[in-house]
Amino acid sequence: MYGHREAANFTYLGLYALQHRGQESSGIVSSDGQNFYVEKGMGLVSDIFTKKTIRCLRGNKAIGHNRYSTSGDSHFRNVQPLTVNFALGNLAVAHNGNLLNASILRSELEAYGSIFQSDSDTEVVIHLMAHSKGDTLLERLIEALFLMRGAYSLVLLSDHDLIAVRDPYGFRPLCLGKWKDAWVVASESCAFDLIGAEFIRAVEPGELIVFNDKGMTSHHPFAVPEKPAQCVFEYVYFSRPDSKIFGNHVVYPIRKALGRQLAKEAHVPADVVIPVPDSGVPAALGYAEGSGIPFEIGLTRNHYIGRTFIEPEQSIRHFGVKLKLNTVPDVLKGQRVVVVDDSIVRGTTSRKIVKLIRNAGAREIHMRISSPPTIAPCFYGIDTPTQKELIGSNHSIEEIRKYVTADSLQYLSLEGMLNAVPGCNDHYCHACFTEQYPIPFTKAEERQLGLFDGHSANR
Amino acid sequence: MYGHREAANFTYLGLYALQHRGQESSGIVSSDGQNFYVEKGMGLVSDIFTKKTIRCLRGNKAIGHNRYSTSGDSHFRNVQPLTVNFALGNLAVAHNGNLLNASILRSELEAYGSIFQSDSDTEVVIHLMAHSKGDTLLERLIEALFLMRGAYSLVLLSDHDLIAVRDPYGFRPLCLGKWKDAWVVASESCAFDLIGAEFIRAVEPGELIVFNDKGMTSHHPFAVPEKPAQCVFEYVYFSRPDSKIFGNHVVYPIRKALGRQLAKEAHVPADVVIPVPDSGVPAALGYAEGSGIPFEIGLTRNHYIGRTFIEPEQSIRHFGVKLKLNTVPDVLKGQRVVVVDDSIVRGTTSRKIVKLIRNAGAREIHMRISSPPTIAPCFYGIDTPTQKELIGSNHSIEEIRKYVTADSLQYLSLEGMLNAVPGCNDHYCHACFTEQYPIPFTKAEERQLGLFDGHSANR
Amino acid sequence: MYGHREAANFTYLGLYALQHRGQESSGIVSSDGQNFYVEKGMGLVSDIFTKKTIRCLRGNKAIGHNRYSTSGDSHFRNVQPLTVNFALGNLAVAHNGNLLNASILRSELEAYGSIFQSDSDTEVVIHLMAHSKGDTLLERLIEALFLMRGAYSLVLLSDHDLIAVRDPYGFRPLCLGKWKDAWVVASESCAFDLIGAEFIRAVEPGELIVFNDKGMTSHHPFAVPEKPAQCVFEYVYFSRPDSKIFGNHVVYPIRKALGRQLAKEAHVPADVVIPVPDSGVPAALGYAEGSGIPFEIGLTRNHYIGRTFIEPEQSIRHFGVKLKLNTVPDVLKGQRVVVVDDSIVRGTTSRKIVKLIRNAGAREIHMRISSPPTIAPCFYGIDTPTQKELIGSNHSIEEIRKYVTADSLQYLSLEGMLNAVPGCNDHYCHACFTEQYPIPFTKAEERQLGLFDGHSANR
Amino acid sequence: MYGHREAANFTYLGLYALQHRGQESSGIVSSDGQNFYVEKGMGLVSDIFTKKTIRCLRGNKAIGHNRYSTSGDSHFRNVQPLTVNFALGNLAVAHNGNLLNASILRSELEAYGSIFQSDSDTEVVIHLMAHSKGDTLLERLIEALFLMRGAYSLVLLSDHDLIAVRDPYGFRPLCLGKWKDAWVVASESCAFDLIGAEFIRAVEPGELIVFNDKGMTSHHPFAVPEKPAQCVFEYVYFSRPDSKIFGNHVVYPIRKALGRQLAKEAHVPADVVIPVPDSGVPAALGYAEGSGIPFEIGLTRNHYIGRTFIEPEQSIRHFGVKLKLNTVPDVLKGQRVVVVDDSIVRGTTSRKIVKLIRNAGAREIHMRISSPPTIAPCFYGIDTPTQKELIGSNHSIEEIRKYVTADSLQYLSLEGMLNAVPGCNDHYCHACFTEQYPIPFTKAEERQLGLFDGHSANR
Fold it and tell me: Which of A186, A36, A184, A24 shows the shortest CA–CA distance to A96?
């Protein structure tokens, strides 16, 4: 947020609304034009910040970040925003996304004498800016951006400016809003809803916006614009259903449309449609609507989730999944059940869910997935396991069905998915479903990401 | 749990499954026949216990408790189970419910030299047992029970016995289960589901069960059995939808039936039915089913809830409710909306919800409540505000409608509710809806509970 | 302190000055006439209290306590002052000393239905008062005192009174002072020095003083006054050298006199006199003065002491003692050294000290002790080990000398000690040196304290 | 320590023995040749480390540091050893001393793109090494040392080497020892005494010692040796009395010699000589010896010191000093008292001490200081206040006497001091007493340190 004397407090509420995007750690940095004020911690937003610490974050501009690690270990030193003091003064950076050439750039910088504080690829941005000979922060940032390959929605804070920038492909969302005279940017519009800010528009792919005491100015530093490659998985799973992302499109009706399309492609006679809560609910409602089969709550979810659970040595069947989910026997007993989920990653959870439903007395279990099979890792900011661990990458759908012990299993088709999401079909990245990565890898990146030796990125 | 060397670990999981019944504090006490092992804390189960602390809770029997305060302040000294060392050895007690004559008994005991450690009415049980001249724990307990008036589902742990007892009215639920050779008791069956125990039956109103190395023995110490007065609000709101309580009845289909009945009694032409999540979901599904109006998710709920939120001085509209709920605009814009909730207590939250929906562009808002108006405080273990604060106690339904700014408001009828729940209509307590308290108050209790001067109990 | 609106803050400073009397835990209770305000914790005074917690301890009267455990385990529930709410209102008690018949009284009280919160013998006082039928606090207290046998300097706080009482033998010190219009009582006068209060006099053995809004009144409830039995070990070791105790007598010159007398009784030709710091310093100065041998610092003490030290597996010689003490080689090398300490308990530390001095190159080591051999446990409030562990109880002086590997060892005589301390020789308890316990034990107490089976008290 | 599998544990004990050199924070870094293991914290050694954390510090070499801040604020990021990962691998550095040109070097490094993590001048060493083009760690270190001006006793740890180096002037002490086959270095020999290591010799001014698997090699990288400028204040006050520093000289007899010399220079007829404890004790003993006036303990010191104290609003006379010191009235009443201290900095404490002694009834008070007046700030690692705050820099001795309200005041002469310490008179730095700084300042340093505008260094 730029331009409100309670900027840090609003930023805190924004982080709270965006907690689903990262639960590992959070931080806020604010500036009053002279000093930076920093508060960071491991854990959830509501545990880290207190009235007192928020009050100490002074100044009329602030940036914040919720982290879920895609690169760099889970250490305090990696908690964002990263802050440094360098030749041009104070600088703080928060980054959503993932750089392809981070470790290559890091090695080069270290050879020139740079010393890194963290494992995070975000720190590369800062050192590139420190090494630039540009006179202004903006010049140095643009020089750094030209060297950075990959996905980034960035916010940067200096003593006088707040800068927001989205990579030329626009992998990750970034929205622009207003709160009276103050400007706000956030990954999703639900952050604006909580604080009562107005959604203006998406920050465009390749756009760089500077906020300072001269107002707001938009830049397009990248000469030749790329075709956008916005993450389709944000619609399928990652964003909150009440958010707008990538323009003026709310997620919930899109998820329902995916479910309706799935009902069309993968009909099966059944008695009830149930979702895997909470993420499968909209698609299951769409499926029920499309198929005419009644929607029911057959699985309940326990939301009092802690970090770790203490399992007795005396083992309990389906222990892990039972901590989150329990069946409602009357809904399932003797029924033909369609269970709708958004995706299958390793298959282990799906298998446990099918067994749980079977134990509750279901006669038939038909699993329906509101996206195509996940076959490839994401290098653009979603934390997927290595390719080897993705059950979709090396098993046929029938093999997966057997593994999860369902009576039938069907996925949504790629075409079905792309037709259900708004805008041009070719403005989305769907590499995790197709292995068609929008940015061609260099040889060094392929080596770095382990793409030749059968392993995925070293994360 | 009685009879398993990992009793404390299973108890911990049971508390985790029952977290919805109390989030203020938790505790577990176990016994190996010689020593008691105690672990207690403020906050959620998943924050209080660690692998290490659970391992220290030795022995093959354990009891646990989640507290949400109906009597006694929120202090560590009130965290249950309460443990003492008295003339017959170690004793621990955990109590769900509320005693009517606790402070009267307390004054009498203090006059005889008793010194209380806590504000909790549960401690009265212990002092009554300490003052009894009975030779055995059982004799002393029964002597104490005869003096106690009100609602109690109790578990007690001594060096050699575990005892479970439910008051003669059976206000609060209590279930009996088995885990292989070990016995388990819990407020709701969802605790059994998590640990994989078998649900046997409800502990009956007025039943007292002793577990020790001679096995399990059932007693019925109360000479003349009372007519049960089981809390109907457990079905309406309090229990988990996947639980069995008060016998072999699952909550979820009963809640749906309340919604179907509501649709019959209070139909209105509309475009969508939406629940107030999460508790309103089953009734809303029932209402949609009964009315034929499509069910939609028009409000999303944020589950990353902390204790306190730091609101900017610059006030935000509907701040409090927005922390939990946000609207999904496409569902509501231009629509005639039926919004279903389980009850209205003070009316303030309902008012904020209606305004939120109105702001999202709804054309008409029809609020439907799946129980009758709440007009009277509960003295049996549900934490209701004083009668003055209950909007239903001193306002007509039309006045409430105006206050919450809905276009229409309808409640389920008492008959409708009692017909939808299982078993005999007159085996339920519905005092919060009717002021018909099953236990006639003594003069002293009326004074104590403030029933004459227009104030409710001094809580 | 009674009668100052910052009573708790002054009490905190008093506890700080008296930290040497107990380092296990501390607590303060204050009263504003209606409520009690309590703050307690494990550890040192300076770690437990904060500006904020002190400010919350409201009211113009307060009592505090530093605990070092002579009875009761080291648990939070034993931290004093103990506070209860009973038939006459709020009550808090802090106790210096030890009761002989605590467990006997406890068993009797439990048979009457009393439930104890702690293991501490102090709680007996409270239950005796709760069971008394007296109308006033004072009547009940006096009734309780008549049943209590042993050593006690007590302060009690009720909603309206502060009461100080010293047992008829006056085992432990208790001083009376004034701060302008307010009254203060403390174990030693050094607490008065810190807060700038004036020392008035000692509270007399058997005296009970009540402070309330009518002023200060002195009572002598015990009909036949006993001959005092004040703890001589307070002069030898326990009190601070700058304190007055047992009247208008400063400790430091008495300790020097013990050293001078020791020089007279146990002269030896030597080059230097060195103390075991810090407690041996005054006696060593007295010895040097008496003998004409130069005083030197041959051992330095490290005051940055934590709770536990992490010793490498690879063992270090004299590890334990080296954490506290190191030698100054130039002082000891080639010298005949007199090393002065106040007492020998188990002998293990003395043995390590002698070896340390020997390693530093001393030619001869003569150990001199400024009190007689410690041969018997204290039952009146000093934490001595069991008789078996006291090296003086079952070994001759020559055997002890051999064990500690000194070239000579001499103790001060009983007569020498009693002549050096002020007042009548027979007004002191010296049971730890003579086994002459001032209060004849009852059979039950002997059993309880294990005096017949060769073991000392079960502590 | 290099070469012992419990290196971190021994390092921890060494830090414990050297706690007097810094109480703000501590840290240990160990290496097993592959990874670095780090544990740091604010506060005392005994509070920071636990058995578990020490056990996690694996490997056979470790360095540690106690910090008391002379440059850089009191933040966690400044806690030493500083650790980085740079082009040559892992590196950790711990620094005792102060660099004159740290901020000048920092600005230059930042202009080349270096980003600093801390405010500490120690980090400059690391960045200089990172920017060097040398092939080996040793080459890079020597290149860095040539650029560093000021006082430094450094230890560095890399994956394979441990390096110790002392600046060419040898301002701060550094000792070399052996523990069986393992090597140890420490600021003072008392660290060796605790772990049972043998003192070998001082590391020489300008000497650089490398420990690795080829053994120990000594280097003298500085071409022209400087005349040493060892800190005389280490003998006067800073080191522990039982330590050897700057060669084979124990501190205690030197301090006594300072006192004896003071008695010769500044005799006064008196009844008692008392020290300001603890640091004034040896000099007071020397004074008593030299003057023939009896030595007494007239002030006692409370060692239970916490960080902060809560003073009542109702002010207490001499509050601050009373927390540490109390008088022993019998020693002082009616006497002519010589009170010996090591130095006077601001004069405020001395003034309070004199008033305390006067209040205790002393007839005459003669203050004697065992060093010359402190007139100038230290830029070599001792934390002195700015010149303006040093009472000796702008007041005559008579003015100081009046301020502290003593009857007489005398300091030791410079010659007296230099004759009492061992070795050549001109091998010591005494700039704080004479303003004769051994290293001529550059213009930039004078600007940086504020030497022209009447303010001292910006600390």
Answer: A186
Give residues with Cβ within 8 angstroms of D152, minimum separation 6. Answer: D95, D96, D97, D98, D99, D165, D166, D167, D171, D172
Closest by Cβ to D310, choosing from C9, C314, C317? C9
Nearest Cα residue to C254 out of D331, D218, D265: D331
Contact D84 A111 (CB under 8 A): no
Query: Which member of A86, A110, A115 has the closest CB to residue D110?
Result: A86
- Cβ-count burial of D108 within 10 angstroms (0-12 exposed, 13-18 middle, 19+ buried)? middle
The architecture CATH gives domain C249-304+317-449: 3-Layer(aba) Sandwich (3.40)
Q: Do chains C and A touch (3 or more CB pairs under 8 A)?
A: no
Which stretches within A57-204 are classed as H helix?
102-111, 122-131, 137-147, 190-195
Q: Give the minimum alpha-carbon distance from B381 to chain C in angstroms, rounded to a whole number.
A: 25
Q: Which residues pair with B410 in a beta bridge?
A: B368
**pLDDT (mean) for B396-410:** 98
Share of chain B above pLDDT 70, in %: 96
In this prediction, residue B452 carries a pLDDT of 56
Q: Which of C85, C86, C113 sits opposite B131 (nearest CB)?
A: C113
Whether omega before B73 lies within 30 degrees of 0, making that bond cis, reads no
Q: Do A130 and D116 touch (CB under 8 A)?
A: no
D334 inside 8 A of chain C by CB: no
Q: What's the pLDDT tens digit per position in A425-457?
A: 899 999 999 999 999 999 999 988 877 544 443
Is the CB of residue B443 less than 8 Å away from at least one CB of chain A? no
Nearest to B40 by CA among B12, B73, B10: B12
Overall fold of domain A250-304+314-423: Rossmann fold (3.40.50)
Nearest CA in chain C to B116: C85
CB contact, 8 Å: D196 with chain C? Answer: yes
Q: Which one-letter amino acid corresponds to residue C127?
A: H
Q: Compare CB distances from B111 to C87, C111, C112 and report the shortest one's residue.
A: C87
Q: How far apart are CA B52 and CA B40, in angstroms?
A: 14
Per-residue pLDDT tens digits for D83-119: 998 888 999 999 999 999 999 999 999 998 999 988 8
D316–C196: do the CB atoms touch at under 8 Å?
A: yes
Q: Is the pLDDT of residue D71 over 80?
A: no
Q: Is the pLDDT of residue C1 over 70?
A: yes
Fold assignment, B7-226:
Glutamine Phosphoribosylpyrophosphate, subunit 1, domain 1 (3.60.20)
Q: What is the ipTM of this complex?
A: 0.90
d(CA A333, CA A362): 5
Q: What is the 3-state secondary structure (H, E, C) of B430-455?
A: CHHHHCCCCCCCCHHHHHHHCCCCCC
In angstroms, the separation between the Cα of residue D194 and the nearest Cα of chain C is: 6
**Residue in chain A lying closest to B196 (CA):** A316
pLDDT in tens, B284-335: 999 999 999 999 999 999 887 766 678 888 778 778 888 899 999 899 999 9
Choose the CATH number for B250-305+315-423 among 3.30.930.10, 3.40.50.2020, 3.90.1150.10, 3.30.565.10: 3.40.50.2020
Tens digits of residue pLDDT in C104-138? 999 999 998 999 988 888 999 999 999 998 999 99
Contact (CB<8Å) B113/C116:
no
3-class secondary-structure state, position C177:
strand
Residue ranges of chain A with per-residue pLDDT less than 70: 69-74, 224-225, 306-308, 452-459
Phi, psi dihedrals of residue C191, rounded to the nearest 5°: -65, -35
Nearest to C8 by CA among A245, D310, A120: D310
Q: Determine the distance in angstroms separating the CA of A57 from the nearest CA of chain B, rounded to an integer.
A: 13
If you count them, how many residues does chain A have?
Answer: 459
Whose tokens are 């354990």? That residue is B62
